[in-house]
Automatic annotation (TrEMBL):
It comes from the Bacteria. PANTHER family: INOSINE-URIDINE PREFERRING NUCLEOSIDE HYDROLASE (PTHR12304), URIDINE NUCLEOSIDASE (PTHR12304:SF4). Residues 5-330 form the Inosine/uridine-preferring nucleoside hydrolase domain. This is Inosine-uridine nucleoside N-ribohydrolase. The keyword Metal-binding does not apply. The keyword Hydrolase applies. Pfam families: IU_nuc_hydro. Keywords: Glycosidase, Hydrolase.
Length: 342
């Protein structure tokens, strides 16, 4: 199994990612580190503990960063942005019994450093929230850079955005951390909105999930339905592939079709990719960077699609631009058919 650490901010799609990582026989989930993101840390931490307790597995959970690295210092950013603007695809607390299990006594960044430094370089990380914990760990001990086998990040958008006109939530919530993490030689796969929106789960598939009859399949159906309803509240007509584009250009491959009976489950795709890389069907090897100027492109993932830097800047990430939604769904349904015993 792939030794994996999951960094997350549950969050409804984060919860599906946790269940997928915990239940997949292909993954050895070493621990879950939790970050401020979809909600404040006390809530995301409680939610992570609720999911672990629900699974009945002995997976250590670590509290991470309470705030973004420097966001409060950038005048153009609102202090509590962007949590307060989130739609209701998450809710404050997951609808699971209150956690009686406790987080570990060590904080996330410290544990990441200790665990990675003691490893043989065989640990992968799936990071599906703002990247504050990973950036803090890199600042504490830069040597972890060469110890991470693979980093799979859910974040950013090539054509897409969702927290501002420019940026996706995870990068918008802590642009400096995203920049610190991407400015490394860690083998990195970014799963941006362009890839995750192409693997939406539908209400019909929720019915099929319920038919499986395990608690995790049932609960995933609840979460996806919550997400579908959350999206219906917004006017997402702009997400339709009616967007004008010139056939044959790069941008035409970056558009996706959305109908109002479906929702993306972004974070689960990062775990799915570790288990089965074929869920990503197209990706770009590129130099990528993050805008941190605090202006209209704050937190924007900048992908040098046309290699304009001509080798002057490193190819520092693979960026997924297409995915196999059917394969993604089948992986989830197959994994959640398991009885939970590992
Ligand atoms: C990301 O933002 C969060 O709301 C989700 O959990 C996901 O990690 C998608 O932009
Ligand atoms: Ca998340």
């Amino acid at each position: 199994p792939i030794k994996t650490i999951l960094d997350c901010d549950p969050g409804s799609d984060d919860a599906v990612a946790v269940m997928l990582a915990a239940l997949s026989p292909a993954i050895d989930l070493l621990g879950i580190t939790v970050v401020n993101g979809n909600r404040i840390l006390p809530k995301t931490l409680e939610n992570a503990l609720r999911v672990v307790q629900f699974l009945g597995q002995d997976i250590p959970v670590f509290a991470g960063a309470e705030t973004a690295l420097v966001s409060g210092l950038i005048k153009s950013r609102k202090p509590d942005l962007p949590r307060v603007t989130r739609n209701d695809s998450h809710g404050d607390y997951l609808q699971l019994p209150e956690a009686t299990i406790k987080p570990q006594p060590v904080r996330a960044a410290q544990w990441l450093v200790e665990t990675l430094m003691a490893s043989d370089g065989d640990i992968s990380i799936a990071a599906v929230g703002p990247l504050t914990n990973i950036a803090l760990a890199l600042r504490l001990e830069p040597k972890i850079e060469s110890k991470i086998k693979q980093l799979v990040i859910m974040g950013g958008g090539v054509a897409g955005s969702n927290a501002s006109a420019s940026a996706e939530f995870n990068f918008y919530a802590d642009p400096e951390s995203a920049k610190i993490v991407l400015d490394t030689t860690i083998p990195t796969m970014i799963l941006p909105l362009d890839a995750t929106w192409r693997a939406c789960i539908t209400l019909d598939q929720c019915t099929d999930l319920r038919a499986i009859g395990t608690p995790w399949a049932d609960y995933t159906a609840d979460l996806v339905e919550l997400r579908v309803r959350g999206l219906q509240v917004n006017d997402l007509s702009a997400h339709n592939s009616e967007l004008r584009h010139t056939p044959g250009t790069v941008s035409s491959t970056l558009l996706y079709r959305y109908e109002n009976d479906m929702a993306p489950v972004h974070d689960a795709m990062a775990v799915a990719y570790l288990i089965d890389p074929a869920v990503v069907t197209e990706y770009i090897e590129a130099n990528v960077d993050i805008d941190i100027a605090g202006g209209i492109a704050d937190g924007r993932l900048v992908v040098d699609l046309h290699n304009t830097k001509k080798g002057a800047a490193p190819i520092n990430a693979n960026v997924a631009v297409n995915s196999d939604g059917q394969r993604f769904y089948e992986l989830i349904s197959r994994t959640f058919a398991a009885d939970g015993a590992r």
